[in-house]
Amino acid sequence: MTTAAALPRPSAGPGEAELGATEFAQIAAVMQREARIHLTEAKRTLVHSRLSRRLRENGITSFRDYVALVERDPVERRTMVIALTTNHTHFFRESHHFDHFRSVLMPQLKGRSKGQSVRIWSAGCSSGEEVYTIAMCLLGRDRTDAAWLRGADVRLLATDISTPVVQAAERGVYAAAARDSIPEPYRSTWLRPHVDGFEMAAEAKALVTARTLNLFESWPMRQLYDAIFCRNVMIYFDDEAKADLEARLVERLAPGGFLYIGHSERLIAPAKLGMSLAGQTIYQKNGGPR
Ligand SMILES: C[S@@+](CC[C@H](N)C(=O)[O-])C[C@H]1O[C@@H](n2cnc3c(N)ncnc32)[C@H](O)[C@@H]1O
Fold this sequence. Notes:
single chain; alpha/beta; Rossmann fold; seven-stranded mixed β-sheet; CheR_N_sf; S-adenosyl-L-methionine; EC 2.1.1.80
C-alpha cells in the first residue's frame, strides 16, 4: 500500500494553501465519522480542490486552521461533508434496472388492489434523476398508461445526505442537456418547458417526496419498500459500513421486494441476508410477493 507521505502533495495554485498528509487524514476521519465516507489517499487532490473554496470563503489561509474550524463548528462540518460528496447521476442511468423494474416488478404493483400501498425508495438520490426515472416508468409511455395510478396509494421517497441536491430533487427542474438521456416517449410525455431547461410534469412530482437523510443515522420511515434503489452510493463506504447498510436496507424491504445497486457494487453476503440474485446488480428478498 502506498503511504500518505510517499504520494506527491496536490500542487497548490498561487496563494492557495497546501493540503498536507496530517490535515488530509483529519478530514478523512471527519468524513468517516459523519457519513462513513471512506476517503483514500487517491482522493487527496479532489479534497484539496473542493475545499480550497471553503478556505477562501471563510477567510482562512491554511488547512490546519480549516480543520480546527470544522472540528468546532457543526455548520462548517456539514458544509464540508456536502462539498465532499459526489453527486454524479443522470436519467435512466443503468437502464437494465428500469427494464427489470418495468417487466418484473411493475406488473405485480399494477395488479394490487386499491388500498394496497406501493412504496419505493431512492436512497442516495442525488438531484433526483433516479427517482424521476422511476416515476416516469410508473406513469408509463403515454397518459392513458398512467390511469392505474389514479386512486392508487403510490409514494416514492428520495433521500440524500446533501440538502442542496435534495432541494434540487424537490424542485424537479433540470438543464436542457439532461433531456438527452430520457428516451421517447417519456421525454415528450412527462417533461414540461422551463426557463432553466425543463421541469418534471406535475404527475411525476406528485409521486415524489424528497428528504435529507444520512443513511447512517436513524431512519424515521416505518413502512416496508417494494423496491429500494441504492445505486452508486455504497462505493464510497468501507466494508463494515457497507455490511451495516446492506442489512438495514434489507430489513426495510418487503418480502419479494427488490434491491437495485450500482454497476460496480456487490452485496457482501446476500444469502445470509435472505437475498437472491435476480439480475445484474439486482437482488430479491426471499419470501415471495405480498
Ligand atoms: C454518485 S451519487 C448516486 C446517485 C444515484 N443513486 C445514481 O446512481 O445515479 C451518490 C449519492 O450518495 C449520497 N451519499 C453519500 N454518502 C451518504 C450518506 N452517508 N447518507 C446518504 N447519502 C449519502 C451523496 O450525497 C450522493 O448524492
